[in-house]
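[agent] plan:
  1. take the single chain provided in the ticket
  2. run structure prediction with default settings
  3. attach structure tokens to the ticket
  4. add a short note for the reviewer (M.T.)
[agent] executing step 1
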Amino acid sequence: MHRVGRVGWLRAAVLGAQDGIVSTAGLLLVVVAASRSRTELAVAGIAGLVAGAMSMAAGEWSSVGSQRDAERADVARERSELERDPGYELDELTRIYEHRGLPADLARQVAVELMRADPLGSHLRDELGITPHAAARPGQAAATSALAFAAGAGCVLVPVLVGDTATRAGLIVAATVVLLGVLGAVGARLGGAPVRPAVVRVVLGGGCSMAVAAGVGLLVGTAV
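[agent] step 2 finished; step 3 output follows
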């Protein structure tokens, strides 16, 4: 079974989870350096979790909503063109199949049959690349991204809160690396891709991002 139908929500899930892990870990490292209070750590972590999840949901809703608006505009334009000049649209579909390698007469026959069965769907699929499984779904992207962010952030926060003061920074780094590795492996499995490259990509990318965020935070905190 092909997994292309998972692309929309899988992208949002991996993005949200990685952002939740990395941003929460960077925030907690800064708080750990500035305070030994478990309460302050919990408040900062939960605040970051909630704010980040809401931000991810709003961002996905807006960005994927813009994609959906563009798709709907193209659908309306294609429908109008089919009504106004179906002959030209038939020629256009024929040329598409010719460019894909079909002989001219067969390309014409295929175009005629598809135009007869589903003219709009044929043009959306073969001319514009708009298909049902790849269509923009803002609600799905927003919910998936927010939940994944909250899950990633929560997984970083829990072991830190139960650990002792001396090991909190180490727990944050260890939990982040492990969680990023698990995320890369799960994402690769769900997408049917090789696991090792995905794990390396997610761990290196997320680890570097966390290090930069924590480093900047510590520098600013020291200066202040």
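[agent] step 4 note for reviewer: The radius of gyration is 24 Å.
[agent] ticket updated
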